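Researcher: Structure for this, please.
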Amino acid sequence: MNIKKKLGILLPLLLAGVTSVALAATDADIENSFNPYKSGTPSFPGLTPGMTINKANVQKFKELFDPATYALIEQGSFDIVTEQTNSIPLHPNYIAATKKYASQVKLGSSLGTIEGYVAGRPFPIKPEKSDPRAGEKLAFNFKYTQVVGDSGRIYPFVWSYKDARTGKLERQLDFDFHFISLKHRVVQDPKEDIEPNPSKIYRDIYLKVLAPTELKNTQLLIQRYDDDTKLDDSYLYLGFQRRVRRLATGQTTDSFLGSDLMIEDFEGYNGRVLDNNWKYVETREMLMPVYRHSELKVTEPKFADGYGQVTFGGKGGCFPNIPWSLRTVHVLEGVPTNKASPISKRLMYMDAQTSVFPVIDIYDHRGELWKRWVVGFTDSAYHAAANKNAGIAIYTTASMLDAQSQHCTALQLEMISDGKLNPPSLFSVQNLRGGD
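Model: Predicted structure, C-alpha cell format:
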C-alpha cells in the first residue's frame, strides 16, 4: 500500500481522535442533548396535532417520513394519527452521570472502540457532518442508552405471524423476556457494577418461549461484552432436545423461530457497534411512533394493573394503532462490516432526545427495501404505573414488515423496568439447563 493511500485511510481517524478530545461536552451541550424542545416543539406547515395523515394528503408531508413509511401510506396500507410533541425526561441519575463523565469519553483508534466511558450518554455533543466518526458516536449513544433501564422484563410478550396481504394469523408465540446491565448502572440498586463479572459482560438478554407447545421452553441467552471488539456469546436451549448449543455468529442474522425478525433486530438494533460502518446523514424533524401510551384510547386491557396492549390495524393487521409525533431525529446509515450479512444497509432513525430507534428501514444486497422495522415508544411516566419513575423511553409495541414476501410479525407487550424481576442468576448457561 503506498503512502498516499495509507494517509487517506488514517487521516480521518486521526482527525476524529483529535476532535473528540478538543470538543469536550459542556453543560449547555448536555442540556441541549437531553432537552431539545426547551425552546419550543417543532412544527411543519399544515401539520396540526390530532390530524390524520393518509393516502389523500401524505404528499404534503413527504419530507417528514422515512421512504418505507411514506410509500406504505401513499399505497393506502395504513393511516397515522398525529399527536403533539412531548418531551421525554430521562432519569436524573443518567443525566448527572453524563455531566460527570462525558468530558473524558473519546473514541479509540479503531472502529468499535471507546475510552473513558463510565456511565450516562457518552457523546452528548450535537453530531456534525464534518466529523467522519459522528455516526459511530451516535451508535455508542444507543448502546449505552437506557432502553429498558438497568434491567427490565417483558411479560406478556406476544408475537403474531401474519400474511400481510390477507391478515391471516399463521402462528402466535408467547415469550418471557429479561434484560440486565451488569455494568454502567445508574438507577436500580445496586447502582455500582454487579459482581462477580470476570468476563466483563456489559449486558445480558434472556428469553423463554411459553407457547406453542412444540417450542415451549426454548430459551436464548445473549451475553454482550463491554469490549465491543469481542463477539457476543449466544446460547440456545431447545426444549425438545434438552440441550444447550452455542450459536454461531452468522445465526444472529437468520430468521428467529420462523419470524420476520433476526436476533440482530431485537430492541431496534441488537448488534455491536463494530458490526457496522456508521455514517451520520443528517438531523431533521420527522414524524415518529412516539406517543403517550396511557392516553391511548384504543387498547386491549388484559392485565390486573390496568395496562392495555396496543392493537393493530391497516393492511394485513400489520401496523400498530398508535399516534405519531414530530420529533428531532438523527439519521444514520449502517453498512454491515460482515460481507456475508444478508443486509446491504440500514437507514436508522434515532430519536435525538432518547437515543432510541423508532424506525429502521432495512435493504437487501440489491439495494432494494427488504424490511421495515417500527418500534413504538412512550415516556415511561405515561405507561404502566410501575414505570412512573423509571425515566426512560419505553417500548410498547413493534412490527417487522417484510416488504418483499408480504409478511409481518406484530409484537404486543408490557415491559416493566424493575431489578427485582431480573435476578443476575437468571442470565447464566446453568439456568438454561434448569429452565424446564
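Researcher: Any notable elements?
Model: The chain is about 15% helix and 35% strand. The domain at 151-433 is CATH 2.50.20.10 (outer membrane lipoprotein receptor (LolB), chain A).
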